[in-house]
Amino acid sequence: CWPKALIGSFRSNQWGAGLEALGQSSSARAGLGEGGDPETMLPVSTHAGVVDFKVHAELLRVITYAMFWLMVLVSIFMTTVVMKQDLTDTPLVEVLGYNNICVYWDYSPAREIAALIYPFVELPLIGYLILNYLEVREFWHAGRISNGLYRFTQFIFPIKLVLAVLFRMIFVIEAFQNVRGHTVGFL
After folding, report:
1. Rounded Cα distance, 80 and 88, in Å
2. Cα distance between residue 87 and residue 166, in whole Å
3. Over its length of 187 residues, how does the chain's per-residue pLDDT go in tens digits?
């Protein structure tokens, strides 16, 4: 059973604040330790000065999708309604034979507006990737997944992070100058 959330602690005192993400051992997490939430199978801390919180990794994924589609819809509106751009003869059609979704942010000002919205796509995505990796690591520590799956996750995690960050190049490299460079973000 996959947990619904990860848990961490936010400790605050007169000298400042610190974040202890995933601050408990995997054995305490798996066995619920001193107390726990049977619904999420996660421990609940009762220490003074500690506020427990749940971070739903999948919520970050949903936010990523919602913000991506908001970016797409704004770009479609800007390109087709405001600018009334003809999309039948584009560099993408010339090279690929068809338009993909990024044709809607190939033209200014749609490209610049999409680039302004994109951090609201990228940041939750990176947060999701990190939390998902930590979740898999915790399952591995608890013996709930195989060594092979965990090793594959370790291998693919930095690649996913790099590709997520480099996706922004679709706003930097214009399709009219370099179609391959513009579309490489879709790896």
Report:
1. 12
2. 26
3. 444 444 443 333 333 333 334 444 433 444 444 444 545 555 555 566 666 667 788 999 999 999 999 999 999 999 999 989 888 888 888 888 888 888 888 888 999 999 999 999 999 999 999 999 999 999 999 999 999 999 999 999 999 999 999 888 888 888 788 877 777 766 6
* φ, ψ dihedrals at 168, nearest 5°: -60, -15
> Residue 20 carries which DSSP code?
E
72-89 residues labelled b (16+ CB within 10 A) or e (exposed):
bebbeebbeeeeeeeeee
Residue 185 CA to residue 164 CA, distance in Å, equals 8
Token look-up 């490299």 returns 173
Helix (H, G, I), strand (E, B) or coil at 123: helix
- Interacting residues of 120 by C-beta distance below 8 A, sequence separation 6+: 67, 70, 71
